[in-house]
Amino acid sequence: MWAPSPPFLYPPLASAFVAAMSAVSVASLASLGLSELRGEHMAYSKFWHVVAGVKQRQQGGGALLPSRGGMLVAYAPALVAALASFAVPGAVDGTRAQLLSAALAVHFLKRVLEVLLVHRYSGSMPLSTALTISSCYLFNSVAMIYVQHLSRGLPDPPVDLRYPGVLVFAIGVGGNFYHHYLLSRLRAVGGGNDKGYKIPRGGLFELVTCPHYLFEILAFFGFAMISQTVFALSVAFGTAAYLAGRSCATRRWYASKFDEFPARIKALVPYVL
After folding, report:
1. From the CB of residue 27, how many other CB atoms can be counted at a distance below 10 Å?
2. CA gap 198, 131 in Å, rounded
3. Closest CA to 45 of 67, 69, 72
4. What pLDDT is recorded for position 199?
5. What is the CA radius of gyration of the chain?
6. Is 90 exceeded by the pLDDT of residue 229?
7. Where do the domains of the chain lie?
8. pLDDT digits (tens, 9 = 90+) for 62-72
């Protein structure tokens, strides 16, 4: 007999392993968000120059990749896994499972294409950081697909969020891409002071420091709405916690670098956070 669950979720699976995966996913991502708030940043983007560069000089560091190569390492395995799920017999049976795998593939294909065609990079990235990000995305993507497969025998949730989830996902992906494009236009060719960073302008950058993270969170809640499993919802909440912490850290970084940074601009949510 299945345990009671909200009308928008599948009943929890009778699997200690899946329950543990859900708990570990949200806890580990939330812990990373708290680390960002404490100033213990993951060494990529602008924080590579703030944190990792110092550690590399002081401790000798580890293997480095060009930033573009590091980000490809971070995103490509999850893309391959999402695409491969369509070739595994029974892995994506049913419309919901197909929509979830397709959404994951679109998300990571967009990321890979942005790395190749949109973003401008300078410097290097620790291999350890690239592998940490890659393993997290790969594990969560494969686990979402796997848990969706296991849920096929459960009663469907009374409230069907599949197609609203596709809409939320599309808004998230579109908004994330648009603000990534605006960021790419800010980077000065050839670097300059602070590696060419400027105060972002345009779109929701007029209200928050990290609208690209806000739309990234929407995309992950789109996954959760398509899937309607406890695990996918755990990943969405964990991602929101991590990106909220990183957004606050990013806002502090901009405020410390630019005296003219507007105090009215929030970190992640307009007028709120």
Report:
1. 13
2. 29
3. 67
4. 86
5. 19
6. yes
7. 63-154, 156-273
8. 788 888 999 99
Count of beta carbons in the 10 Å neighbourhood of residue 3: 8
Place of tokens 């708290």: 34
265 close to 273: Cβ distance less than 8 angstroms: no
Give the tokens for residue 41.
Answer: 């940043």
| 3-state DSSP assignment of residue 233 | helix
Token pair in block for residue 77? 């395995």
Mean pLDDT value of segment 185-208 = 72
Q: Six-digit token pair at 68?
A: 């573009």
Residue 212 burial (10 A CB sphere; 0-12, 13-18, 19+): buried
Can you read off the two tokens belonging to residue 227?
Answer: 């899937």
Nearest to 147 by CA among 228, 67, 42: 228
State the CB neighbour count (10 A cutoff) for residue 256. 10
What pTM was computed for the model?
0.89
CB 36 within 8 A of CB 241: no
Question: What type of residue is 14?
Answer: A
Q: How many C-beta atoms surround the C-beta of residue 217 within 10 A? A: 23
Residue (of 114, 98, 105, 100) closest to 80 by Cα position? 105
89-148 confidence digits (pLDDT tens) = 888 999 999 999 999 999 999 999 999 999 888 778 889 889 999 999 999 999 999 999
Separation of alpha carbons 169 and 107, rounded Å: 9
Looking at the DSSP bridge assignments, the partners of residue 218 are: none
